[in-house]
Amino acid sequence: MRSNTFPENLSQNKGLSIRIVSPEFGHIAPESAAQYGPAQRLPYYFFLLVLYGSSQEIIDRETIEVGKNELFFALPHQIRQLARSGNGADYYKLGFDDDCLSRLPRKFPFLLNPLNQQKISFPPDAALRLCNTFKTLNDLLRTADTDPELILAYLNSLLTEINAAYFIMHKKQTIGSLDKFLGFKLFVEDHLTDQPAITEIAEKLALSTDCLYRIVKQHSGVSPKEFITDRLIIEARRRMYNNQHTSVKELAFELGFNDPGYFSRLFKKVTGKTVASFYQDLSL
């Protein structure tokens, strides 16, 4: 289980770390919101369902437009900036931590984001079901002493609906192939700064390197090596945002690079910017 901490005093339930926000409920005071700044490294899972209108979400410096009957989600450790626009005329936001997730009766593969998409569109019937579940959670969390098991039951229903929608466009893909990709992605997350060799990962997943290449390419559009490189650069950006005083040398070693010069060249190749210029942009 990941060691995330839900922000202190943010939970709306005595037994769970969870909070919901809708146009008329759950907003924190402006002075409390100010302490989080214009951007935050998420310590919890975040969801935004737009029912009417639109919102512009920025996650790991990527801008995502969210419209009617669309859901945006973000995962722990991602950098989320405050939306440049409103959250639509009608919406629900939801945040909860790993403790909530661990108490649910099943796993939800979409939370590994194997398809690298953080926005899901829902047809009207599914959007209505999702809206009703969010509304029930909204009602339950109005009372701090609501039985946590009741909240978890509806949270489980909500994530089940989202998980099904996430994979619906890819249901023709073989389950075995997707399972292997999930295994690859989880292994990379767990050993990212060790920078495991592709042959080592293939061996752990009982695959040939050629087979692993085909599976990762199918589900991500890039090779296993490119996938790991991209993930390392994303992690570098997150750490640079979180600690703007870390030197290039320190950052390189933290990420498993023995040669800071190579890390600097790789960073510029992937991002188009030097580490120094990236730090400069953060300070603006």
From TrEMBL:
InterPro entries: Homeodomain-like_sf, HTH-like, HTH_AraC. It comes from the Bacteria. Pfam families: HTH_18 (PF12833). This is AraC family transcriptional regulator. Keywords: DNA-binding, Transcription, Transcription regulation. It comes from Flavobacterium zepuense. GO terms for molecular function: DNA-binding transcription factor activity; sequence-specific DNA binding. Residues 182-281 form the HTH araC/xylS-type domain.
